[in-house]
Please model this.
Amino acid sequence: MRVVIYDEESLEPITVVNLPGMTEFALEERQHWQVAVTRKVPRRDIDDDGNAYIDQVKMVDLTFEKISRVTLTYGEQFTWLCLTRATELAMLLEPDWLPGQRPAIDTLRERNEQLATLMADTLTSRPADRT
Model:
């Protein structure tokens, strides 16, 4: 289920995420959920294994409220509003782009991959190969 997460205090939209397994039935059962955010943080005790970073997991609390609106055409419609107080953590969640944003994001990803390939090829080529 694609969800827009809003700041609980200001009702400002924070991000759009896809929450697999989230259904209308699950929200009817329970309105409070937690989502894990994983980020890399520097290690304080660097061993000889070469890993300078470790994964840190924090939880974002999400609260869902059922809201309704009434229109002349469709009558009463119900939807869910997703709220959080942890806005900074919510911004670190993997975004799920809206349909209108998808083509631009896909183009940017393709260009980034092309640039990364060019940079890797340039860095791995020998000086004799560059002439």
The beta strands are 2-7, 13-18, 32-42, 53-71, 75-84. The longest helix spans residues 102-124.
